[in-house]
Design a protein that fits this description.
Blueprint (H helix, E strand, L loop, with lengths): L1 H20 L11 H42 L7 E7 L5 E4 L9 E5 L36 H28 L1
Antiparallel strand pairs: 1-2, 1-3
Length: 176
């Protein structure tokens, strides 16, 4: 396969070079250096024109977009606020909705988008059941790796791994 590729490349090169030496019926060569040069110059001019047009369009797009952003930021228009309702049911569970409680009184809460911060949940296992339903107990998440709770958990885990390794070694020794 490798030799076939070499052979194909050599045939292609010989064919291109032969175009410079073979003559057409009118006596001219099929390919001349002037033709190659003029065609490459024309292609180069087209590429430069296309790239400068593209650059001009990109500059215009960036300028328009930046002016729109600056206009939005400096316009001073306040984002609209959202009203939600909250109420507590008979079991003490809080509910939040865009509709007031149909069975009773609801407290109206106004949400200002500037005051709302969305943070990713660290532990989503609490979403499967609530603490009131006897599900997963809520734990305080450690603040850093130097937290004593984290360090104690690491030591406990290390002791468990050590005891498991000792049990496996004993089992292997007994099987021999």
């Amino acid at each position: 396969m490798k030799y076939f590729a070499y052979l194909a490349v050599m045939v292609l090169l010989i064919s291109v070079v032969a175009l410079f030496y073979l003559k057409r019926p009118d006596g001219q060569a099929w390919l001349t250096t002037e033709q190659v040069t003029s065609k490459s110059d024309a292609l180069k001019e087209q590429m430069v024109a296309l790239s400068s047009d593209t650059l001009d369009q990109a500059v215009k797009l960036v300028t328009d977009t930046s002016s729109k952003v600056v206009e939005k930021v400096t316009s001073g228009a306040k984002p609209s606020t959202t009203v939600i309702y909250k109420w507590q049911d008979d079991t003490g569970q809080w509910h939040y909705s865009d509709q007031p409680n149909p069975k009773g009184n609801s407290e109206q809460v106004v949400l200002d988008p500037n005051d709302v911060t969305v943070v990713a949940a660290e532990d989503t296992s609490i979403l499967k059941g609530s603490a009131k339903s006897g599900g997963i107990p809520l734990k305080k998440s450690p603040t850093s790796a130097y937290d004593p709770i984290v360090i104690q958990k690491l030591f406990d885990d290390a002791e468990q791994v050590k005891s498991q390794l000792e049990q496996r070694n004993n089992t292997l020794e007994q099987s021999h």
